[in-house]
Amino acid sequence: MKPTTALTVTAVLLATTAPVSAETLRWARSGDALTLDPHSQNEGPTHTIRHQMYEPLIIRDVTGAFVPTLATDWAPSANDPNVWVFNLREGVTFHDGAAFTAEDVVFSFQRAQQPNSDMKELIGSIVEVRAVDDFTVEMVTDGPNPILPSNLTNLFIMDKDWTEANNTVAVQDFEGGEITYATTNANGTGPYVLQSREPDVRTVMVRNDNYWGIDEFPMEVTEIVYTPIQNAATRVAAMLSGEVDFLQDMPVQDLDRVNAADGLVVKQTPQNRVIFFGMNQGADDIEADNIDGANPLADLRVRRAMSMAINREAIQQVVMRGQSQPAGMIAPPFVNGWTAEMDAESTTDVEGAKELLAEAGYADGFSIRLDCPNDRYINDEGICQAAVGMLGQIGITVNLDAKPKAQHFPLITDGNTDFYMLGWGVPTYDSEYVFNFLVHGRESDIGTWNGTGYDNDELDAKIASLASNTDLEARNADIAAIWRVVQDEQLYIPVHHQVLNWGMAEGFGIEVDPEDQPKVKYFTVN
């Protein structure tokens, strides 16, 4: 992904701004969707674009409450505690006019369980999905799963016939650089239809006038023009000049300027996302450092020292201009299992950190490379730059390598980074989601974003048991015990919880979603 220049952005916006009807939403943020393949990448901005065109069985609204979508209702079976029954919405069609049925749900869930799918951890407890009739689906789980619906809000449904006809039954191998028909084309049941797609340049969607919810939601935006703009100053300039109506990823240094501008407003809410650093502690030796034959990150004292060197309050005030909340654990406050006590456990102690490094045999420090995205999180590269200076105070020389998320994320999922930034939102609002992706040992269908090399069989078994534990008190006790291990082993270095700021033209009625996943069907136009 090449950085978007101001000239390129201006050219793209000019091509779409005159004339523009009041129902066109010109939408920008720092990066693009990685792919349109519904099951390839579990990544926020990617889901956001797909949510306009594809739909899951269930979504959440801005309050976090479930909203029936392609399923009208769902409940555990009265006959079998290992089965969830979903009743599907009738009369729904895909964008090409094909009827939506249970067959498409069964097909989509089976597709999402493929090895290349980044969604497979979410449905790992499902052993069978079966169509009872055209509008009833049963999901059989490996033991009762009390929170299964929470895992389905980003699991999009594809048309089986369309997918087969376009030779895209196999999920895209994103890390391998594969391009398929489904990566740049879409055929969902959603409120907007893909009109054109130029990755990293522009995506245009138009209102689906045959949408099943056309009379249930405002649906007042008739056209969406989405433009990724990596450069922060260029994003703000586009908003201030009126070339953009809706801006995510608002630079924190420009909030007051945008909010004070005529016809513009900034809305804010805490985000369901935490930012942190990961460290490869599992390898005997690592490539990114200057220590031969050893891995300093394998020593708990080193990991703790690195965490103690990070001044979260300074990052909050200087880098984030107050728009963050220092974190001590890698779960947002929205999540079942989060506690204020654990979230306050990360403290700054430079001298104590130096002592720990000396105890570990690194009194003279060492050097290491930090891999960081520069177009995914709010001020991501700025946070990494601050961490470089802070770690330098305890003798660790950090060489920063910042790159677009399309190149950064495969470093983590492919195990090719030793020290890296990552952010994690929790759409299920439950710690099991964090554990499955970030704590469980890496296997073919679980732990895919765990770049730490940490692998604890006993802990993995306890994580696996969460999916079928219907005794919520005992389950919460297990969640607390798992978090205690994560904290004590310093698997990650928590930095902060993000705060969302969305900029918008006053004519648009938009409420900030803590998931950072705007759904345009809810927007109004005044």
Task: Please characterize this protein's 3D structure.
By secondary structure, the protein is an alpha+beta fold. Among the domains are: 123 residues, Dipeptide-binding Protein, domain 1, CATH 3.90.76.10; 227 residues, Dipeptide-binding Protein, Domain 3 (Dipeptide-binding Protein, domain 3), CATH 3.10.105.10. It is 27% helix and 23% strand. It is built from 15 helices and 19 strands. The strands form five sheets. Strands 1, 8, 9, 10, 11, 12, 13, 16 and 17 form a nine-stranded mixed β-sheet that branches. β6 and β7 form a beta hairpin. α8 runs antiparallel to α10.
Task: Spell out the blueprint of helices and strands.
Layout lengths: L5 H12 L6 E6 L14 H10 L4 E3 L5 E3 L2 E6 L6 E6 L13 H11 L13 E8 L2 E6 L18 H6 L15 H4 L7 E7 L3 E6 L15 E6 L3 H9 L5 E2 L7 H6 L3 E16 L20 H10 L2 H8 L4 E3 L23 H10 L6 E8 L6 H13 L3 E8 L1 H9 L5 E7 L5 H8 L18 H9 L6 H17 L3 E14 L2 E2 L14 E2 L1
Helix pairs in contact: 8-10
Please tag this protein with its features:
526 residues; alpha+beta; Dipeptide-binding Protein, domain 1; Dipeptide-binding Protein, domain 3; 9-stranded mixed beta sheet; 4-stranded antiparallel beta sheet; 15 helices; 27% helix; 23% strand; disordered N terminus
Short description:
This protein has 526 residues and is of the alpha+beta class. 27% of the residues lie in helices and 23% in strands.
